[in-house]
Amino acid sequence: MTDAFDLEPALAPDEVEPFDPFPFDAPSTAPPAPSAGIARIHLAPHSRRSRAGPLLPPEPALFPWLARRFAPGEVTLWTGPGVAVEPMLELLYAGNALARGRISLLEGGNRFHPYRIGELGRSLGVDATETLRRIRLARAFTAYQMVALVDGWAAEARRHPPTLLVAHDLPALFAADEIPDDERAALLRHVARALRTLADDVRAPLLLTLNPGGLDRFPGLVDEGPRWCDLVTFVRGPGTLRLRALRDDARLAIVPRAGGQRGMEEFGGGSAEEVIAWGAPLRRTARHSRNG
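Given the sequence above, the corresponding structure tokens read:
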């Protein structure tokens, strides 16, 4: 009998195409409107926030910032437009492989790109094939398949213990027109309760990603789902990716900068925002310098 969770096919390193993890010429994205669901979130107390092993490596500095947002048996929500969240999610997969972790991924949006993930792993010093081998992937193509996969996720995770559970865009399939509204709400509430059982049983951190406003379209997640560790919002702007964590109001800006360059954020200025310069190639300009 075929396992419901299929390992993504391995790739040879020379089959992986180049990938820019942050294409900063993407259109600007305005901050999302506040969600009514966010106001009802109650974060778990700090006493629960212990972790048995490293989730991400200590470098680059982005990884420790992300790792502080997770705790065993609790859910961390990343919310924002896909153009902002998904590149960071792929970088998380590569970083977890560098830390010799294992990810159990339930993909609801059918947006898993093995070539890009393999290339990111290779950029961090991990063989592309090894990066993909550390991800166990299951995809659903209907809402009813998604419910069945969530119901079987705890048993799968016990057979193949993961470092991190990832549920990417689970509500996407429930938006189909053929699903009545009352049935959609009942199914999503069932999924929320199943995710709580999963987190309690497996005791691994659970990452859930949603589009802006997705929390309001996921009935039961706030009041019947897993305990909350943190919520991180993503906003994409011209040349910058900004993250903000609900628990401690920690803010992070990621800007493209070539190695050796320095920025004004090093000299203060009163901003509560932490700035991390992600390595980027020098960009040529049309202007030519002149002597004198």
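The beta strands are 6-7, 74-79, 103-107, 135-139, 164-168, 206-210, 227-237, 240-245, 251-257, 273-279. Try to locate this feature in the token string yourself.
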